[in-house]
Design brief:
Layout (H helix, E strand, L loop, with lengths): L2 H4 L22 E5 L4 H12 L3 E6 L2 H11 L4 E4 H7 L2 E4 L6 H7 L1 H4 L3 E4 L4 E4 L2 E4 L7 H8 L4 E4 L6 H5 L8 E7 L2 H11 L5 E5 L6 H18 L11
Parallel strand pairs: 1-2, 1-4, 2-3, 4-5, 5-8, 9-10
Antiparallel strand pairs: 6-7, 8-9
Helix pairs in contact: 5-7
Length: about 240
């Protein structure tokens, strides 16, 4: 008789994991590629303000060092390759136009790293912002294709760069949609999100669902322009 045959059908099953039981990420070094731009600079500031070690990257180390000195809070600046090498988690906040070229050049440095892509492929014309659809399906999927040895996730798409950089703003009340292929990785991103007062990371599917998340930014830009706001998102009943 096999072990399976002897199993007690009445035995209690392990309790399902609490989706809000998130790991300790306090010791992780966060790198921000595109850390001299508004979104990257704002994220770097918020994570450094929460006590994390942050390194911002740029194509020119001098530019990154200048931005880091302006931010203070122990933030360091380096060229993109050095930033990627020294970081445990790397946020990709570069302009869409340079997304593919930047990641292709950093494949070796980003191998084995947790990569968080927050790039929104958008176009602009006289009618306003509109979504672009990359050949791979989304910016996050393009990142995953270009970085086969990295653990690619997607998050931080819908945050106001103005609020992120505003030193008078203590909390940013918004949810962050987090996408990825591994629960372990998305849990880490959710835990990182929770370091910023007011923010909550919510698992929102696998990377194949990233296009509509990235595209929603075009709608938020329209909301902000009409109502002169810095709109974010809240997920209800979760």
């Amino acid at each position: 008789m096999t072990t399976t045959d002897n199993a007690d059908p009445t035995a209690a099953k392990p309790a399902p994991k609490d989706p809000w039981d998130l790991p300790d990420v306090s010791g992780l070094v966060i790198g921000v590629l595109g850390g001299t731009g508004d979104q990257g600079r704002g994220l770097a500031y918020r994570f450094a303000r929460s006590g994390q070690k942050v390194i911002i990257g740029s194509r020119a180390a001098e530019r990154a060092e200048t931005a880091a000195a302006e931010l203070g809070l122990g933030v360091e600046g380096a060229d993109n390759a050095e930033c990627a090498r020294r970081s445990d988690v790397v946020i990709v906040a570069v302009p869409w136009e340079g997304h593919a070229k930047t990641l292709e050049s950093l494949r070796a440095e980003l191998a084995g790293k947790l990569v968080i892509d927050c790039v929104n492929p958008l176009g602009f014309d006289k009618k306003g912002a509109y979504a672009l659809k990359p050949e791979e399906g989304s910016a996050a999927e393009q990142a995953a294709a270009l970085l086969p040895d990295s653990r690619v996730t997607a998050a931080f798409h819908h945050l106001s760069a103005v609020l992120l950089q505003d030193t008078s703003v203590e909390t940013i009340d918004t949810d962050v949609m987090v996408l990825g292929e591994s629960r372990e990785d998305t849990d880490l991103v959710q835990a990182l999100t929770a370091l910023i007062p007011g923010m909550r990371g919510v698992f929102s599917g696998r990377l194949r669902n990233a296009h509509q998340v990235e595209s929603l930014v075009a709608n938020l830009i329209s909301v902000n322009r009409r109502y002169k706001a810095h709109a974010g998102l809240r997920i209800t009943d979760v």
